[in-house]
Design brief:
This protein is an alpha+beta fold. Helices cover 32% and strands 16% of the residues. The model has no long low-confidence stretch (mean pLDDT 95).
């Protein structure tokens, strides 16, 4: 099968790759780059576990072809902490018990980061709408929403 050359800028680092045109961004992140924090849940765009930021906007990486991300900026959960410091949202998730099994947490965090960049002080309804594509089977979302509100309220 024909492979396509592409360059992905992931978490600030450029990666030159050769990939088959049918490969999803999710599979390339996990299998080629070893970034397994982005989870493979439903592989159909229904659960949000694979949410990454593509040029700052949240997308389901399972629905994006890797070739569509050529030359674009991809942010994954691995790039959220800086210099050994957790992102304020990561800290809030810990403080509020918002991460239980943790499978959905990376996708929820990525969506939440995008939300707070766009809307620094979202309402509870705006938070719920932003997370509507992320399924969590453990928490019931209360702790997740409280964690996001605590960061938004603190102006972090």
């Amino acid at each position: 099968m024909t492979r396509h050359s592409l360059v992905l800028k992931v978490n600030g680092e450029s990666h030159a790759l050769q990939v088959e045109p049918h490969r999803s961004l999710l599979d390339v992140l996990r299998e080629e780059l070893g970034l397994t924090g982005t989870k493979k849940g439903c592989d159909a765009g229904d659960c949000g576990a694979c949410t990454v930021l593509l040029d700052g906007a949240p997308v389901n990486a399972c629905l994006v072809l890797a070739v569509q991300a050529d030359g674009r900026e991809v942010s994954t959960i691995e790039g959220v902490a800086r210099d050994g410091q957790l992102h304020p949202l990561q800290e809030a998730f810990i403080e509020h018990g918002a991460a239980q099994c943790g499978f959905c947490t990376p996708g929820i965090l990525m969506n939440s980061i995008a939300l707070l960049r766009e809307t620094p002080s979202p309402t509870r309804t705006e938070i719920q709408e932003a997370l509507s594509g992320n399924l969590c089977r453990c928490t019931g979302y209360v702790q997740i929403i409280e964690a996001i509100e605590s960061v938004a309220g603190a102006g972090k």
